[in-house]
Write a structure and sequence with these properties.
0% strand; mainly alpha; coiled coil; 441 residues
């Protein structure tokens, strides 16, 4: 192989290595972009999950506020009804009192010295007192209504302050959405640049392959022209085989490059699909954010109304609590303290009874011990008595047997009368002595 061909093949190998490195870099960039897209999609999914949870919390809070609003609406309606009834009662009292007052005024003007009738005058005074009471009650109801309105205004301001965190969170979510959109735009630009770079790399690779093919064809033509003898033919065949192997390797590398380019194209298509889905998710999230903002505004308005009613209910609850506290104090002085004294006395009696019961239980336990000891002792004695009776029965049987033997034996006095005192009985044996002791016992 000649030196120019070696240099050409080395240059071709260098270019192929460079192309492989560029393809690896493109593949790494596509993988990094895919990972970045996956991370962004996961972040968007987490944000959507958080928004869904916040929406559920807002819905529950909205339901609670609606319930409280309904309760407060009922309370306000009842207060308005009481105020209308008080006004009607005042007008009725005024209508009833005015003719009598005019009559009394006419009587006094006709005859200033004559006193008015006592019964009518007293009735007029009573009606005037009722009128004053009704006016006072109406004024109290009006004051309560004004206080409820003031509380409503105060709670509306509090509700506005309480809604500030939701607005800040909404702004933060919008900022996140804008950042995600900017990141999507940057990813699209990077993907477009990667595609342009891949296209340029493929074009340059094809051009180099065409150039190598052309050079190979030129070399083959030159070799065919210079073929003159067998040695040159063998060398040319070797060179042709080497060129064929190099061409096969180049074709394989070309196929690998095309496969890598196809994979990069598929990865780019997948990245485009992910970008499209992410954009769709971002649009859906924008719509949900707008919906949440609308719900938050509606809830803020409802909260303002609810807070107004809550204050009036709280005032009533405080009054009711104060009344119950006073009743409890009175009941404590009249009922609870005597009951506590009786309970203390009963507790002392129960303590004394418990002590007595414990003492009796100890006595019963000691008696049980004594009884058990006596029972055990009696059982032992019964066992000894049974053994003694058995031994006595055995001894009695032995004595009867010995007597029977004596009756059957010949008399010994005629043979040896002076040896044991004439006709005296035999001495008592040890077994007979034990038997007689047992019988005595």
């Amino acid at each position: 192989m000649t030196e120019p061909r070696r240099r050409a093949l080395g240059w071709i190998g260098t270019r192929l290595s460079d192309h492989r490195a560029e393809l690896v870099e493109v593949r790494d960039e596509v993988d990094s972009m895919r990972r970045a897209m996956d991370e962004r999609i996961a972040t968007a999914g987490k944000a959507l999950t958080r928004l869904a949870a916040e929406r559920g919390d807002l819905q529950r809070e909205r339901d609670l506020l609606r319930q409280s609003l309904a309760e407060k609406s009922r309370v306000a309606a009842r207060l308005r009804l009481e105020l209308e009834q008080a006004r009607a009662h005042n007008e009725e009292l005024l209508a009833q009192t005015l003719p009598a007052a005019l009559q009394v005024a006419t009587q006094i003007s006709d005859d200033p010295t004559s006193p008015p009738e006592k019964s009518g005058f007293r009735q007029n005074l009573a009606m005037a007192g009722e009128l004053r009471d009704a006016r006072a009650e109406a004024a109290a109801l009006k004051a309560k209504l004004e206080e409820a309105e003031e509380d409503a205004a105060r709670h509306s301001s509090r509700a506005a302050l309480g809604a500030l965190p939701y607005e800040a969170e909404t702004r933060a979510l919008r900022a996140e959405l804008n950042a995600a959109a900017a990141e999507l735009t940057r990813a699209k630009d990077a993907l477009a640049r990667a595609e342009d770079e891949r296209t340029r790399s493929e074009e340059s690779h094809r051009a180099e392959v065409r150039e190598l093919t052309r050079r190979h064809d030129d070399a083959m033509a030159a070799m065919a022209a210079r073929r003159s003898n067998d040695d040159e033919a063998a060398a040319k065949r070797e060179l042709l085989r080497a060129h064929a192997e190099e061409s096969a390797a180049l074709r394989a590398e070309t196929r690998d490059s095309k496969a890598a380019a196809a994979r990069a194209e598929a990865a780019a298509e997948a990245a485009r699909a992910q970008l499209a889905s992410l954009e769709e998710a971002a649009r859906g999230r924008d719509a949900r954010v707008e919906e949440v903002v609308g719900v938050a505004d509606a809830l803020r308005a409802e909260l303002e109304a609810e807070k107004a009613k809550a204050e009036s209910a709280a005032a009533k609850a405080a009054a009711e609590t104060e009344r119950l506290r006073s009743e409890l104090v009175a009941a404590r002085h009249t009922q609870i303290l005597p009951d506590l004294a009786a309970l203390d006395e009963m507790e002392s009696r129960l303590h004394s009874l418990a002590g007595t019961l414990r003492a009796r239980e100890r006595e019963v336990a000691s008696l049980n011990g004594v009884v058990e000891a006596q029972v055990m002792e009696r059982r032992a004695l019964a066992e000894e008595l049974r053994n003694a009776r058995e031994e006595a029965a055995a001894l009695k049987a032995a004595i009867e047997k010995e007597r029977e033997l004596r009756r059957r034996a010949p008399p010994r006095g005629s043979q040896n009368g002076g040896g044991n005192g004439g006709g005296k009985d035999r001495p008592m044996t040890k077994s007979m002595s034990r038997a007689f002791k047992t019988l005595r016992y």
